[in-house]
Specification:
This protein is of the alpha/beta class. The protein folds into two domains: 200 residues, Isopropylmalate Dehydrogenase; 140 residues, 3-Layer(aba) Sandwich (Isopropylmalate Dehydrogenase). Helix content is 44%, strand content 16%. The protein is built from 14 helices and twelve strands. The strands form two sheets. Strands 2-1-3-12-11-4-5-10-8-9 form a ten-stranded mixed beta sheet, with helices on both faces. It has a two-stranded antiparallel sheet with strand order 6-7. A hairpin with a 5-residue loop joins β6 and β7. The longest helix is centred in the first third of the chain and has 26 residues. The radius of gyration is 21 Å and the shape is globular. Bound molecules: 3-isopropylmalic acid and magnesium ion (MG). The site of 3-isopropylmalic acid has 6 residues, from α6.
């Protein structure tokens, strides 16, 4: 065997070992954390970088306002986590510096601002995305992204698998020589089963009648094939819910088909397809700036804006005018997740009113509009007037 093949085979063997260890960790974690049994729920507030700290503090002030009594009674505690900036990550040469990871792990749920993801050619070393690393480290396997446009009959909830697929080894592919490079995609039985079950459970609890699995199993036969087979297996436990099965290419087309798209309800899909399709879907609602995203695991959960860190806005001194609506939507999901559904509903109603009905303040991203802090105050005033 040539040295080249030997070195590559050894690299691949290491990847297999690491993935097998991950499967063991996954299999060991059976139950979801029960928030009703906690004396104190610890909410981490991690601003990230770029416009992150500005928009996150807007959402944080609303959460403090809504949970003031719980904080006083010691049932809820906030912890601000500052260190997840690109500068610190570069200094530690890690996607998430160890001290920040320890702080994150000391929380039950996390509200997270966007973080800068380096790419080749940037002034930063090409370290892994902090988002992707956090999803892996905290095993946040379900990325739940709702998209609603009531007047067009759109009400979709995406269950994007969040720890596997093309992302599992996204920073661990390798070039065999100058001519050939490999990346990998990974599907595990537990990984597919837990996301499929999460989607069906959500459908069952929310009166939905259909779950749509989106893959490319006709071409990516082994891993997408496994994902689809497991969705079919899990569907058998939910006889009242129909499973239908689409390929990602035609699904991206059908989302713009006004006649067909209203029939989709809950969609479950592997990581990369979920990444792409949820950006497309959010566009119908007003863009990625308007959508929130929940990253759920059995022990931890993290809630975030689905847009990026917009470093250009910071460079131009416009971060205080950045739109906090996406991360406020994420705060709605956080409240729901920790058992404060009534407060979540209030916040959602107030936000809809401010964004779509009254529009007394408008965010433009510059000094022609409101600041994020002013908008947060507007949302709080609206809650009080509900
Ligand atoms: C998202 C983002 C991330 C992803 C990036 C920032 C790594 O696009 O949350 O959808 O690809 O998952
Ligand atoms: Mg994305």
């Amino acid at each position: 065997m040539s040295d080249m093949i030997k070195t590559s085979t050894e690299k691949f063997a290491k990847l297999i070992e690491k993935q097998l260890a991950r499967v063991e960790r996954m299999n060991a974690q059976k139950d979801f954390l029960d928030f009703s049994k906690l004396d104190t729920i610890v909410i981490g507030v991690c601003g990230g970088d770029g416009i992150g700290p500005a928009i996150t503090s807007a959402a944080h002030s609303i959460l403090e306002f809504l949970l003031a009594d719980e904080v006083k009674a010691g049932k809820v505690q906030f912890k601000v986590i500052d260190g997840l900036t690109i500068e610190n990550r570069v200094k530690a040469n890690k996607a998430i510096p160890d001290d920040v990871l320890d702080e994150l792990k000391a929380c039950h749920v996390i509200l997270k601002g966007p973080t800068t993801t380096p790419r080749a050619g940037d002034p930063w070393p090409n370290i892994e995305s902090a988002n992707v690393a956090m999803r892996k480290e905290l095993d946040l396997f379900a990325n739940v992204r709702p998209v609603k446009v009531p007047e067009q009959g759109i009400d979709w909830t995406f269950f994007r698998e969040n720890t596997e697929g093309a992302y599992a080894l996204g920073s661990e592919g390798f070039a065999v020589n100058d001519d050939i490079a490999f990346d990998f995609t990974v599907a595990t039985t537990e990984g597919c089963e837990r996301i499929a079950r999460a989607a069906f459970d959500f459908a069952a609890k929310n009166g939905k009648t259909k779950v749509t699995a989106v893959t490319k199993a006709n071409v990516v036969k082994t891993t997408d094939g496994k994902f689809l087979d497991i969705c079919k297996k899990v569907a058998k436990d939910y006889p009242d819910i129909e499973l239908d099965d689409w390929y990602i290419d035609i699904m991206t087309a059908k989302l713009v088909d006004e006649k067909r798209r209203t029939s989709f309800q809950v969609l479950v899909l592997p990581n990369l397809y979920g990444d792409i399709l949820t950006d497309e879907a959010a566009e119908f609602q007003g863009g990625v700036g308007t959508a929130g995203s929940a990253n759920l695991g059995k022990r931890y959960a993290m809630f975030e804006a689905i847009h990026g860190s917009a470093p250009r806005m910071v460079a131009e001194g416009r971060d205080k005018y950045a739109d906090p609506c996406s991360i406020i939507r994420a705060a709605v999901m956080l409240l729901n997740h920790i058992g404060y559904g009534d407060k979540a509903d209030k916040l959602e109603r107030a936000l809809d009113k401010c964004m779509y009905e009254e529009k007394k303040l408008v965010i433009t991203g510059r000094d022609t509009g409101a600041t994020g802090a002013e908008f947060a105050q507007y949302v709080m005033d609206t809650i009080q007037a509900l």
